[in-house]
Design goal:
mainly alpha, 225 residues
Length: 225
């Protein structure tokens, strides 16, 4: 059986992660440099004005620690998606980020919800569940690696820390699971073995018993006298 599953490394996988991280740091720099406060552009649940946060919330952070805590996992997880799931990476990031914002808008408390952590949980969930669903050994290994590195994040989809948007985390986690299911047939995946029938297989019947085909002997034509 021919195996056509190949993974080719390319430095281009870092373009989107680097661009994203640089962008959120640049926005925070502008906010500090010029004394702006962009928190009001975050998601404010069940409010028409707060809907703009669906598009903007992932680029806004409250302080340096908040930004730093999101930057490293964001870069690692987004690079992983771009490498192992390059066909789906941009769709997961854009549509997944949008749906994460929408779900946060629907279920969250009445407060401004900001930060890229919703996207972090989106990517974390997508990587983990994609490996489990596809059952391809390389992707399962990636899933286990992600659990080892960031498995502790799972607790923050629950309201265990005051001032943290667990609703945004939960939204990203659920949307990541949804996209892992939707894109289960895209990119690398475990293939069903296919065996071509050979001449040797024809020597056995459907029950596996040795039953070679009968060879008819040639007889000379009979002539009536």
């Amino acid at each position: 059986m021919k195996n056509d599953l190949h993974i080719h490394f390319s430095a281009s996988i870092f373009r989107i992660p680097i661009l994203y991280v640089v962008l959120i740091w640049a926005i925070y720099f502008i906010e500090i440099k010029f004394g702006f406060n962009f928190n009001k552009y975050g998601v404010y649940p069940r409010d028409l004005t707060g809907f703009r946060g669906v598009f903007l919330t992932h680029f806004i952070h409250s302080n340096t620690q908040h930004l730093f805590n999101n930057s490293i996992p964001l870069f690692v997880l987004l690079s992983t998606v771009c490498f192992f799931y390059k066909e789906s990476a941009l769709k997961v990031l854009l549509w997944g980020g949008f749906l994460t914002g929408v779900l946060t808008l629907c279920i969250a408390r009445e407060s401004y919800h900001i930060g890229a952590s919703g996207v972090v949980y989106l990517l974390f969930s997508f990587i983990f569940f994609s490996g489990v669903i596809k059952k391809y050994y390389r992707l399962v290994a990636v899933s286990l690696m992600i659990i080892f590195l960031y498995g502790g994040m799972i607790w923050y989809v629950f309201p265990i820390k005051e001032g943290m948007s667990w609703e945004g985390h939960l939204s990203g986690f659920l949307v990541g699971l949804l996209f892992a299911f939707l894109y289960r047939k895209k990119g690398l995946r475990k293939k069903t073995p296919y065996f071509e029938e050979t001449a040797f297989d024809l020597l056995f019947d459907e029950n596996g018993n040795f039953s070679p085909p009968k060879i008819e002997e040639d007889h000379p034509d009979e002539t009536e006298v």
